[in-house]
Task: structure prediction
Amino acid sequence: MFQRMFKKILIANRGEIAVRVLRACHEMGIAAAVVYSDVDRASPHVRKADEAYPIGAAAASESYLNIPKILDVAKRSGADAIHPGYGFLSENAKFAQACADAGVKFIGPTAAAMEAMGSKTRARQAMEKAGVPFVPGTSRGVESFEEAEQVAAKIGYPVMLKAAAGGGGKGMRLVDSPEQLKSSLEAARSEAERSFGDREVYIEKAIVNPRHIEMQVLADEHGNTVYLGERECSLQRRHQKVMEEAPSPIVDADMRRRMGEVAVRVAQAAAYTNAGTVEFLVDEKKNFYFLEMNTRLQVEHPVTELITGLDLVHLQIRIAAGEKLPFAQKDVSIRGHAIECRIYAEDPDNNYFPSPGKITLLLEPAGPGIRIDSGMYEGWNVPIDYDPLLAKLIGYGNDREQAIARLTRALSEYFVGGIKTNISLFRRILHDGDFRGARLDTGFLERMLKRTEDKRVDSREAEVAALAGGMFAALGSTATSGPYVTGSASTTVDANASKWKEASRREALR
Amino acid sequence: MLYDVTIDGKNYRLDLNHAEGRWSCRLDGRDLEVDAVLARPDVLSLRIENMAYEIKLERGANDLYLWVGDARFAAEVRDPRSLRGRTRAGDDHGPRKIVAPMPGKVVRLMVREGNEVEPGAGVAVVEAMKMQNEIKSPKKGTIRKILVREGSTVNAGDVLAIVE
Result:
């Protein structure tokens, strides 16, 4: 049957996800247009695009979050669809509606489905009707401190306060005892106000050390909805995911079917279309509770792609073009195991604080079972203005052990110079006994980071380092991308460098 | 050429000679046969008696590291004949610079010139990638000078203030 496929797609995003979508467009013979802010002219998504349109200043509100500017580019470029990626406008119902009004297809769910899911409290009301299991708590925001006190006493401490419009850990507070409730409620409310412009906060029973497991769903516009298996996302820091894997080591076929069926019910209750993710908290007895639905393509979608053999972005585009799902639930099978590392521009020696700057050296791994979705290149300056996610390294194997072995091998090949990254964190995780034993929960990473790393110094390697240090110094400026190696290597001092600069450089070598 | 190299706190004396593409090395009095190839800037391939190593050089705003395979070593290389190389010491006297550990924007200054600060006291808040980082004073003293303003954009290594 003839299908009307898009001729040109506008990608309203940046970084690795814009590149990911671009690749899918090119694989499908669709032209890809991108937008970029003032600081992103040299970014990879602009380099790889067919058309690129500047849309303004670095601040996201002036560029990647600016609906009129993006719709104007859609019009000028003649794009017939917009892919929003993740973050930015991807879960903005107003944007989805504005696209529809402008006659441009939004590759994602409808504004109505997004609105139903966007507010956690409203989503909860709809889901309760559909028989979806919930963590005990309020299904609407608490009006007053007194109400909060009553609810918390009823469900029992510890409780979790959450922003109704929230996500990414903003506006969230764990409350262990009644004495902390008042100040935590105030803090959660003001953070919610600042982050989302909405003070609404609700209360849930806190599941201590839960697992965070999510189910990928896909729905076409003809009433077919399938689930594509789960992802284990328990490795988080400050409520942000760091590492994900699929399948979850604790989910068997029966649990997968039960979670999958609930996820499909969730999607259908909201008349959901396109790709989405239903998040669950799982307690120690493997009870699972609906947490929220993410109405977008997830950062960690590649692990699902690797174990199902499906291309989620291709499918998103085909669904948005009006095609029917090309397979049924019974055709979905899971093979092998995949693990993703989120490579962030963060400094492990400085409490994982963001570390933007110029990438002076980039050595990327390759070989069997390795996939890299990257948004960086050597020589590129990572801007200070956006999320620190640089790339995703994904390892695939026949089973979890092989995936871990391949990832460990790949990490030893991976090197990013000029800026700090969290690559070393993944080496540590992959060697951790609890990780290897798949004993994971959302507190895993914080606990691991509190333990001091047992650093075994190989004296032979230390000698090799000493030797190499001298050689770099002796070779001078040709051997290094930076200024120079020794404090006194007069051969490479820029004659114009001021004393001040020289001193600060020398200091840099202490 | 003579170098004093410190690797993770341990000192080495290295005598290196490089002529016609060949190296002769003496590390703490031991002669080593080393074959070195610079694969590209910052990447050195070494063969030491048939053992092969790849070494990567990592440079931060205030530090230098050498990677031998997966192992990372804090490194410092000095020319012992240079006076300056010897005068450096981690002493607590005299002025100390408070530097930005990463590029970003100064969103808040927490001290004024002349303020007394304790070690670990917040001096400025630098924001990058939507994260705020409090830059702390390394020592007790008086803020002698502030070199940035709220709203200033800074690079890694830029001096924010001087404490004495």
Q: What stands out?
A: Chain B touches chain A through 70 residues (CB under 8 Å). The first strand of chain B starts at residue 2 and ends at 7. Chain B has two domains: 2-86, 96-163. The mean pLDDT of chain B is 87.
